[in-house]
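hey team, just a heads up i'm posting the complex here instead of the shared drive bc the drive is being weird again. everything in one block, sequence lines first with there labels, then the predicted structure for the whole assembly after. its four chains so it's a bit long, scroll down
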Amino acid sequence: MTPKSRVTSHQVAKRAGVSRTTVSFVLNNVPGANISEETRARVLQAAAELGYVPNAAARSLVSGQTLTLGLVVSHAEHLKVDAYIPQLLYSLSHTSHRHGYRVLLETVEDVSRADVYLELVRGQRIDGLIVLNLRSDDKQLPELIRRNFPVVLIGFRRWAELEEKVYAVETDDLEASSRATQHLIGLGHTRIAHITFSPDNYFATQTRHQGYRLALEAAGLEYNPKLVRFGNYSAASGYEAMQKLLQRKPYPTALFAGNDTIALGAMAAIHEKGLRIPQDIAVVGYDDIPTAPYLIPPLTTIQIPAVEQGRLAVEMLSGLIRGVVPERPQIRLPAPLIVRASCGAKQKAKAYQR
Amino acid sequence: MTPKSRVTSHQVAKRAGVSRTTVSFVLNNVPGANISEETRARVLQAAAELGYVPNAAARSLVSGQTLTLGLVVSHAEHLKVDAYIPQLLYSLSHTSHRHGYRVLLETVEDVSRADVYLELVRGQRIDGLIVLNLRSDDKQLPELIRRNFPVVLIGFRRWAELEEKVYAVETDDLEASSRATQHLIGLGHTRIAHITFSPDNYFATQTRHQGYRLALEAAGLEYNPKLVRFGNYSAASGYEAMQKLLQRKPYPTALFAGNDTIALGAMAAIHEKGLRIPQDIAVVGYDDIPTAPYLIPPLTTIQIPAVEQGRLAVEMLSGLIRGVVPERPQIRLPAPLIVRASCGAKQKAKAYQR
DNA sequence: TTGAAAGCGCTAACAC
DNA sequence: GTGTTAGCGCTTTCAA
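-- predicted structure starts here --
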């Protein structure tokens, strides 16, 4: 960068013929300061002419604020393959802007490294934290919450011991996955397979798995571990898991997939085996990613309102940073089942409803 | 945050019984300073015990560095729907970490607001910038480049007037889209439709469109604007565009889609119309998103090496920030055509190769 | 109404 | 080898 572009408040002050204090007062609209209209205009013009933007570090050093929010994606691979996340990123970024914040994207590669985002906090790089899909082996977050650092979780989580201090925007994954499974049971299926969302160290995975199990048992069906395979967010993992589920008969007649991307991969495996969806195997997904209505056949799935989740999370966090305690620490959003064609509940004629 | 967590170098110094200078020297491994092993160990231990992390703002203020890279996604909607971007985000974040940088995610909502990322630069929030899919109506970027601010573009772009100052990791979109179209021509197609990547204000869109046209004309086929529809990154836009293309006969016998997500949507429209892929309409996409091999049928597409692009972009940028001028300002990556089943080039038996 | 001066936490040149 | 000190650019109290 050329020296020319390093404009300081000093230069603005000089150009406007005032002191740096005045510049600061004008630019920050300090309430107490009585600045004449004429001076104010001169300062504003000088700043505009020079393209002055206050140095973020200096401002942050003195104010203690960074105007930056950290977004933690618990597993980096997840980001790469799951189409649910981009919607959230979009919404988070969008809403943060509207509240005057920037978003620092932090992906966590390694479980064992405990300081990954503690460092952001300790180094005072961020004013608050949004954590996506918390893992059950995360030890640092409870610590942060205990110290009252502003944190909002996206996704479902109960922490008995911290209940009223855990701020979250959640959907009831347990109930929703149970409802998805019930839907399949209601269509007459008894051999319903499940491919999990991820390895077992995600809360979301445990909860969805559990919901599936509860629905089976509530209907008097046996929970059969052979019908459960572990996925890994991706279509590739869904494809492989489904192939394994189709290695021996009797085939399952329905699948509840841990997310839509996994469902997509599983559908490819089903198709490759020469089986039809939904006639031979019904499929239900989770998330309602933007491409779900355009799969062949269109995917029946639990809808997670990603954009609204993102918006609410930022609004809540921005409040927490300002010391506003929300009425209820946890916001629960509805997660409706969107019935399309892949579950077989609808007539062919209506199959392509979007 | 409790006061306890606001650990400063002063406290570390006190605990270790040394001065703040010594703490700084030890923690930053300053080469010149001769620190006794014993002192060094004491400082390190004190820092560890207190969980000391230097205040980022203070450090940045004095060093002039932020250790943060800005990532600009030119259109916010794009982020939400295109599965190509997450791969890049992943790679960018991953590589940045390895180089000691953080990633600030900046989405540009509004074309007209000229200061969107100039502000990041002027406020010295970032040390360098990565710009994804530059738009042709972007006026601020040339300015930044002219001033030698470290910028790396991802995607193809020629700027005659700045040629040797534009750093980029690119694929030859013109050649690649031409090659994709040629592939369809080689399979005997003459009515080949194109759904563009986005509205026309992206360079990538113009280039892919142009490559399609060049291939047609090189083969002596007429370029027919009626076979071209504008997409909008998303499956929904691909679906709608394809529906329009199928409104009157003769139908196109092949489609070259501006990206894979659009191809996915278009495939749904084709299927809904009762037509078969590839027998009635062959489809070729662009990007090779992670789900492309799992579409039904698996998608033939141009492969953009997103992860490698991201890695190279960060490496180049990190070099530029340190003043390292790369041998060649533009790195060009190969973009092979991955032939799967959707184009009809392969036998049915091999259709599901992944 | 405006200006002088202190200090946020850190690094690094310069003494000791 | 280690400590003293002067800023980095900004906000903000206090004085004029």
